[in-house]
Design goal:
Elements lengths: L9 H21 L6 H8 L3 H7 L3 H25 L5 H16 L4 H7 L3 H27 L9 H17 L2 H5 L1 H16 L2 H10 L1
Length: 207
Protein backbone atom coordinates (compact mmCIF):
# COMPACT_ATOMS: atom_id res chain seq x y z
CA UNK A 1 0.00 0.00 0.00
CA UNK A 2 1.39 3.40 -1.03
CA UNK A 3 1.54 5.90 1.81
CA UNK A 4 0.50 9.51 1.38
CA UNK A 5 3.14 12.20 1.03
CA UNK A 6 3.89 13.90 4.34
CA UNK A 7 2.97 17.55 3.72
CA UNK A 8 5.26 18.74 6.52
CA UNK A 9 8.33 16.81 5.51
CA UNK A 10 11.49 18.20 3.95
CA UNK A 11 11.18 15.38 1.45
CA UNK A 12 7.88 16.75 0.18
CA UNK A 13 9.31 20.27 -0.16
CA UNK A 14 12.24 18.96 -2.19
CA UNK A 15 10.00 16.82 -4.36
CA UNK A 16 7.63 19.72 -4.92
CA UNK A 17 10.55 21.87 -6.08
CA UNK A 18 11.76 19.12 -8.44
CA UNK A 19 8.28 18.79 -9.91
CA UNK A 20 8.01 22.55 -10.49
CA UNK A 21 11.45 22.67 -12.13
CA UNK A 22 10.66 19.78 -14.47
CA UNK A 23 7.13 20.96 -15.30
CA UNK A 24 8.36 24.50 -16.01
CA UNK A 25 10.95 23.18 -18.44
CA UNK A 26 8.34 21.02 -20.18
CA UNK A 27 5.63 23.72 -20.33
CA UNK A 28 8.01 26.34 -21.72
CA UNK A 29 9.47 24.16 -24.47
CA UNK A 30 6.48 21.99 -25.47
CA UNK A 31 3.54 24.21 -24.61
CA UNK A 32 1.02 23.61 -21.83
CA UNK A 33 -1.54 21.51 -23.68
CA UNK A 34 1.03 18.99 -24.89
CA UNK A 35 2.27 18.24 -21.36
CA UNK A 36 0.18 15.75 -19.38
CA UNK A 37 0.47 15.08 -15.68
CA UNK A 38 1.50 11.55 -16.64
CA UNK A 39 4.42 13.00 -18.63
CA UNK A 40 5.68 14.98 -15.64
CA UNK A 41 5.37 11.98 -13.32
CA UNK A 42 7.12 9.67 -15.79
CA UNK A 43 10.00 12.09 -16.39
CA UNK A 44 10.58 12.29 -12.63
CA UNK A 45 10.06 8.54 -12.07
CA UNK A 46 7.31 9.15 -9.53
CA UNK A 47 3.78 7.83 -9.43
CA UNK A 48 0.89 9.85 -10.79
CA UNK A 49 -0.77 9.47 -7.39
CA UNK A 50 2.21 11.12 -5.68
CA UNK A 51 2.09 13.99 -8.17
CA UNK A 52 -1.62 14.57 -7.53
CA UNK A 53 -1.08 14.49 -3.77
CA UNK A 54 1.16 17.55 -4.17
CA UNK A 55 -0.60 19.33 -7.05
CA UNK A 56 -4.31 18.60 -7.37
CA UNK A 57 -4.45 19.36 -11.11
CA UNK A 58 -2.40 20.71 -14.01
CA UNK A 59 -3.60 24.28 -13.58
CA UNK A 60 -2.36 24.35 -9.97
CA UNK A 61 0.97 22.95 -11.10
CA UNK A 62 1.16 25.58 -13.85
CA UNK A 63 0.34 28.31 -11.32
CA UNK A 64 3.24 27.23 -9.11
CA UNK A 65 5.53 27.20 -12.16
CA UNK A 66 4.54 30.74 -13.13
CA UNK A 67 4.93 31.90 -9.53
CA UNK A 68 8.41 30.36 -9.41
CA UNK A 69 9.35 32.17 -12.62
CA UNK A 70 8.15 35.48 -11.21
CA UNK A 71 10.04 34.92 -7.92
CA UNK A 72 13.19 34.12 -9.88
CA UNK A 73 12.87 37.41 -11.73
CA UNK A 74 12.21 39.35 -8.51
CA UNK A 75 15.18 37.73 -6.75
CA UNK A 76 17.42 38.49 -9.72
CA UNK A 77 16.59 42.18 -9.57
CA UNK A 78 16.86 42.29 -5.81
CA UNK A 79 20.43 41.01 -6.16
CA UNK A 80 21.05 43.46 -9.01
CA UNK A 81 19.93 46.41 -6.88
CA UNK A 82 22.02 45.26 -3.92
CA UNK A 83 25.14 44.83 -6.07
CA UNK A 84 25.71 48.59 -6.26
CA UNK A 85 24.31 51.91 -7.42
CA UNK A 86 22.65 51.65 -10.83
CA UNK A 87 21.11 54.31 -13.01
CA UNK A 88 17.59 53.90 -14.33
CA UNK A 89 19.06 53.22 -17.78
CA UNK A 90 21.23 50.42 -16.38
CA UNK A 91 18.16 48.94 -14.69
CA UNK A 92 16.07 49.13 -17.87
CA UNK A 93 18.82 47.39 -19.82
CA UNK A 94 19.18 44.68 -17.19
CA UNK A 95 15.45 44.03 -17.37
CA UNK A 96 15.68 43.95 -21.18
CA UNK A 97 18.54 41.44 -21.14
CA UNK A 98 16.83 39.27 -18.53
CA UNK A 99 13.65 39.12 -20.62
CA UNK A 100 15.63 38.36 -23.78
CA UNK A 101 17.21 35.35 -22.07
CA UNK A 102 13.78 34.22 -20.89
CA UNK A 103 12.04 34.63 -24.24
CA UNK A 104 14.76 32.55 -25.91
CA UNK A 105 13.49 29.56 -23.88
CA UNK A 106 9.75 30.06 -24.37
CA UNK A 107 7.67 28.45 -27.12
CA UNK A 108 4.86 30.40 -28.76
CA UNK A 109 2.48 27.63 -27.69
CA UNK A 110 3.20 28.36 -24.03
CA UNK A 111 2.41 32.07 -24.41
CA UNK A 112 -0.82 31.45 -26.32
CA UNK A 113 -2.07 28.61 -24.15
CA UNK A 114 -1.38 30.42 -20.87
CA UNK A 115 -4.45 32.60 -21.49
CA UNK A 116 -6.69 29.52 -21.24
CA UNK A 117 -6.01 29.06 -17.52
CA UNK A 118 -8.08 31.63 -15.58
CA UNK A 119 -6.49 31.00 -12.19
CA UNK A 120 -3.05 31.69 -13.61
CA UNK A 121 -4.21 34.72 -15.59
CA UNK A 122 -5.91 36.17 -12.49
CA UNK A 123 -2.77 35.71 -10.40
CA UNK A 124 -0.60 37.38 -13.05
CA UNK A 125 -2.99 40.33 -13.30
CA UNK A 126 -2.99 40.80 -9.52
CA UNK A 127 0.80 40.48 -9.39
CA UNK A 128 1.19 43.07 -12.14
CA UNK A 129 -1.13 45.47 -10.33
CA UNK A 130 1.00 45.20 -7.20
CA UNK A 131 4.08 46.15 -9.25
CA UNK A 132 2.53 49.35 -10.63
CA UNK A 133 3.41 51.49 -7.60
CA UNK A 134 7.02 50.28 -7.82
CA UNK A 135 7.10 51.07 -11.55
CA UNK A 136 5.65 54.55 -10.94
CA UNK A 137 8.38 55.30 -8.38
CA UNK A 138 11.05 54.01 -10.79
CA UNK A 139 9.95 56.28 -13.63
CA UNK A 140 9.57 59.29 -11.32
CA UNK A 141 13.18 58.81 -10.22
CA UNK A 142 14.27 58.49 -13.84
CA UNK A 143 12.54 61.79 -14.65
CA UNK A 144 14.21 63.44 -11.67
CA UNK A 145 17.63 62.20 -12.83
CA UNK A 146 17.04 63.47 -16.35
CA UNK A 147 16.90 60.10 -18.14
CA UNK A 148 13.15 59.94 -18.81
CA UNK A 149 10.83 62.51 -20.34
CA UNK A 150 8.39 64.19 -17.99
CA UNK A 151 5.68 64.67 -20.66
CA UNK A 152 4.89 60.95 -20.89
CA UNK A 153 2.07 58.98 -19.22
CA UNK A 154 4.07 55.91 -18.17
CA UNK A 155 1.05 53.93 -17.00
CA UNK A 156 -0.50 54.39 -20.45
CA UNK A 157 2.77 53.42 -22.16
CA UNK A 158 2.99 50.25 -20.07
CA UNK A 159 -0.56 49.19 -20.90
CA UNK A 160 -0.09 50.03 -24.57
CA UNK A 161 3.09 47.97 -24.75
CA UNK A 162 1.23 45.00 -23.24
CA UNK A 163 -1.48 45.45 -25.87
CA UNK A 164 1.14 45.51 -28.63
CA UNK A 165 2.61 42.22 -27.38
CA UNK A 166 -0.86 40.67 -27.14
CA UNK A 167 -1.81 41.88 -30.64
CA UNK A 168 1.40 40.48 -32.11
CA UNK A 169 0.43 37.08 -30.72
CA UNK A 170 -3.15 37.22 -32.00
CA UNK A 171 -2.12 38.49 -35.45
CA UNK A 172 0.48 35.78 -36.01
CA UNK A 173 3.54 38.04 -35.75
CA UNK A 174 5.07 35.88 -33.02
CA UNK A 175 4.84 32.83 -35.26
CA UNK A 176 6.39 34.80 -38.13
CA UNK A 177 9.23 36.52 -36.28
CA UNK A 178 9.54 34.65 -32.97
CA UNK A 179 8.80 35.80 -29.41
CA UNK A 180 12.30 37.12 -28.80
CA UNK A 181 12.40 39.36 -31.88
CA UNK A 182 8.91 40.72 -31.21
CA UNK A 183 9.82 41.54 -27.60
CA UNK A 184 13.19 43.01 -28.60
CA UNK A 185 11.78 45.42 -31.19
CA UNK A 186 8.66 46.52 -29.32
CA UNK A 187 10.58 47.12 -26.09
CA UNK A 188 13.36 49.16 -27.69
CA UNK A 189 10.88 51.37 -29.58
CA UNK A 190 9.12 52.27 -26.33
CA UNK A 191 12.29 52.70 -24.28
CA UNK A 192 13.92 55.04 -26.80
CA UNK A 193 10.64 56.93 -27.10
CA UNK A 194 10.37 57.86 -23.42
CA UNK A 195 14.09 58.56 -22.91
CA UNK A 196 15.48 62.10 -22.99
CA UNK A 197 18.57 62.84 -25.09
CA UNK A 198 20.63 62.17 -21.96
CA UNK A 199 18.87 58.83 -21.54
CA UNK A 200 19.40 57.86 -25.20
CA UNK A 201 23.10 58.74 -25.00
CA UNK A 202 23.45 56.56 -21.90
CA UNK A 203 21.51 53.79 -23.63
CA UNK A 204 23.80 53.91 -26.68
CA UNK A 205 26.93 53.76 -24.52
CA UNK A 206 25.76 50.65 -22.69
CA UNK A 207 24.34 48.56 -25.56
Amino acid sequence: MTSKVDNSSDCRVLLSSRIIDKATEMFLTKGIKAVKMDDVANDLSISKRTLYEIFCNKEMLLLHCVQRMRRTRDEHFKCFKESGQHTEIETILEFYRFQLRLTSKISIKFVKELQKYPTVVQWLEESNREKKAEAKSFFEQGIKNGYFRKDVNYELIGEYAETAISDSMENGLMEKYGIQEVFQNITMIYVRGFCTLKGIEELEKMQ
